[in-house]
Design a protein that fits this description.
With 149 residues, this protein is of the alpha+beta class. The chain folds into two domains: 35 residues; 75 residues, Beta Barrel (Elongation Factor Tu (Ef-tu), domain 3). It has two helices and six strands. A four-stranded antiparallel β-sheet has the order 3-6-5-4. It has a two-stranded antiparallel sheet with strand order 1-2. This is Efflux RND transporter periplasmic adaptor subunit. InterPro entries: MdtA-like_b-barrel (IPR058626). Pfam families: Beta-barrel_RND (PF25944).
Length: 149
């Protein structure tokens, strides 16, 4: 009789272990549903929803700004563009063989950002409102010193 009782207790304990494993699996699944991961690396902005607020799949909780690579937009005036064209005609300036222009960034404090960027976009149209052409350079920004905005 003691043997049968022990076998019954063992079966009961094994069943309880299996139930506990299932509960752990369910808890891990619930944590997975509660964890939100950004699809990109960067820095998070302010929280747009208060903690404890019920949210749906379409609610925006925050925003994430990518910092690597960092795009820097700037404008070239029509006069600067004409000067560049003239310098090219005179042979003082040449397009790189691969047509990839490297640029240096000078922040507002007049220092020179140590990393070299590369032109990744130049608008084909002159903006008559601003009198400029939009140009974009990409900087790897490995040190994260450049920030959006």
């Amino acid at each position: 009789k003691d043997r049968e009782k022990a076998i019954g207790q063992e079966k009961s304990a094994k069943a309880q272990v299996e139930m506990a494993k299932a509960q752990v699996g369910q808890a891990q699944l619930n944590v997975g549903y509660a964890t939100i991961k950004s699809p990109l690396a960067g820095i998070s902005g302010e929280a747009l929803i208060d903690e404890g607020t019920y949210v749906t799949a379409s609610d925006k909780l925050t925003y994430v700004a990518a910092v690597s690579p960092m795009w820097v937009n700037f404008s070239i005036s029509e006069a600067q563009s004409l000067k560049r064209d003239e310098m090219m005609r005179q042979g003082l300036l040449r397009y790189p063989g691969d047509s990839k222009f490297d640029v240096q960034l000078t922040p507002s404090d007049t220092s020179v950002y140590p990393e070299t960027g590369r032109i990744t976009f130049a608008d084909a149209e002159y903006d008559s409102k601003t009198g400029t052409f939009l140009v974009r350079a990409s900087f790897e920004n490995a040190d994260g010193k450049l920030r959006p905005g």
